[in-house]
Amino acid sequence: MGFALMVEPKYTISEYLKLEEESEIRHEYYDGEVFAMAGTTLIHNEIVDNIRTLLKEVFKPKGCKTFAESVKVECIKNFSYCYPDAMVTCSAEDFKSTYIVRNPSILVEVLSNSSANYDQVFKLKLYTQIASLQYYLLVTQYECYVQLYTRSGKDDIWTYQTFANPTDQVPFDDLGFSLPVAAIYEGITFLPEEAESMPSEER
Fold it and tell me: Which of 48, 137, 157, 199 is close enough to 152 for a disulfide, judged by CB 3.0 to 4.6 Å?
């Protein structure tokens, strides 16, 4: 997801939710502050689509739902709401919700230059406070590099793994499946990081 830029500080939850219903632009919310979400690259969109397709194939037969980009997750009740690039929920409570997922099992962010620190540090802190979350997957869009945070047992300890080869399998052992790195990046031709910020006529 592109980096969030602050619009105005100190919205109430009800004001924020009303804003989201009426706005054509997505916003994230943190402790009264509202942030407009920036656009994404074509590669970012393709990777998100690949991941959502892979996750949907695994979880739809199990009665779970997979969402991408335009559905928000409640990180901390009445305190923080974010738009992950993809997520999976198997919660009956979430199935009854209209706009908000509160009990995700998996959250995914595809990293860009502007969002890398935000997703790897700030959102990591928020997401790991969600009691239902078992996995947080981070995917780099400029090279073959995937990071996985896994909740270990009941002690709220998170393990960290990285995967940099197309032949690697990203393990989601507690949920009984793995994602091939090659499938995450299927159809992707990597561009230099700086190329995304240059006008096409200057490339």
Answer: 157
